[in-house]
Amino acid sequence: MRPLPDPGTADRTGTPFAAPARAATTVSLVAAAAVVLVEVTAGWGDRAWLPLVGGLLLGLPHGAVDHLVPAYRLRWGPARLAAFALGYAAVATVTWVLFTAAPGPALAVFVLLSAWHFGTGETAFADLRAGRPVRRAALPAAVLGGLALLVPLVRGAEEAAPVVAAVVPGSDGTLPPGVGTVLLAVVLPAAAALALALLLETRWTEAAEVGALAVLVLVAPPLAAFGVYFGCWHAVRHTARVLAEDPANVADLAAGRLGPPLRRFAVAAALPTVAVLAVLALLWSAAGGWRGLVATDLPLLAALTVPHALVVAWLDRPGPAPARVRAPSGRVAR
């Protein structure tokens, strides 16, 4: 199993990604530790849905500027950008239609796509944090995606069953016999092997993150574990990447300033996020509780995830390492 790159050189790359990468790494680990700490000291009990719903809401803005990513990378003008936004909306609409027409197969594909999206997001973040080119790391990505998503789903199968049954008419929402056991028997030893490989390569932060994810998904309630992973780990790390993609942020990030780039991101993400929140508010009013909301929200979440995953896959295609940038003084940032 090929280990992920060592982030130890992040401060020396001189790229716009260094500052947001440090901040995202800190937020991820602190949030995961906080959820685990609450569980081992007081227990989440029947309040585990709070981190789930909170994480889903916190994670909404991270894909809200997908329509601007090609403009950042390719310097597209308004016409191409509008065409891309229409195509994005079309993919989302087709996904929603397919999900509502064939919810069973669509849910299975959605889960696998999401696991792959989470895993490749982890490996790409690690590459960029280390100042190296984004590489295809299929096996580590599969392991990390399985750890982040499949393990909580298996552990929380009983709690998720009513949601799945609501999404898939005629289903009792339970996994086929033996599937959960097989997934755990594959993913957990693979995660241990990945962590060991990283340790042997002295890639300490990466190994610690695999361990932190494992503790999160095995100790925290499954719903809380996925909520904090989605909203405070995956979404935060993707946002860090988007900040570094925006050419308007280069000078600020080279100087280590995160405030102005975050404000630019908030402004760009505000309208799409408010639109989705308005739809969710309408769904909540008719959902009759958080389980109903999640069940009603799944087709919408899938519709947003598929084009988002395609944009990120394009962003993740193998390429050169991030270029060094010039600090405001004119020196190459170190």
Label this structure with key terms.
13 helices, 334 residues, globular, carotenoid dioxygenase activity, mainly alpha, disordered C terminus
What profile does the largest beta sheet have? none
Radius of gyration: 20 Å
Instruction: Please state the overall shape, judged from the principal axes of the Cα atoms.
Output: globular
| Domain unit count | 1
Distance between the termini: 32 Å
H/E element order: HHHHHHHHHHHHH
Total of helices: 13
User: What is the structural class?
Assistant: mainly alpha
Q: Beta-sheet strand percentage?
A: under 5%
Low-pLDDT regions: 2-13, 320-334
Percent range of helical residues? over 70%
Topology, number of strands: 0
Mean pLDDT: 86
In short:
The chain has 334 residues and is mainly alpha-helical. It has helices at 18-41, 49-59, 69-74, 78-101, 103-129, 138-155, 157-167, 179-200, 204-219, 222-245, 250-254, 259-287, 290-315.
What do these coordinates show?
- With 334 residues, the chain is mainly α.
- The protein has one domain (7-315).
- The chain has 13 helices and no strands.
- The protein has helices spanning 18-41, 49-59, 69-74, 78-101, 103-129, 138-155, 157-167, 179-200, 204-219, 222-245, 250-254, 259-287, 290-315.
- Helix 2 runs parallel beside helix 10 (222-245), helix 5 crosses helix 10 (222-245) and helix 7 (157-167) packs across helix 13.
- The protein starts with 17 loop residues before the first helix and ends in a 19-residue tail after the last helix.
- 43% of the residues are buried.
- Residues 2-13 and 320-334 have low confidence and may be disordered.
- The chain crosses the membrane at residues 21-42, 48-69, 105-125, 137-157, 177-200, 212-236, 265-286.
- It is a multi-pass membrane protein.
- This is Probable beta-carotene 15,15'-dioxygenase.
- It catalyses: all-trans-beta-carotene + O2 = 2 all-trans-retinal.
- It comes from Geodermatophilus tzadiensis.
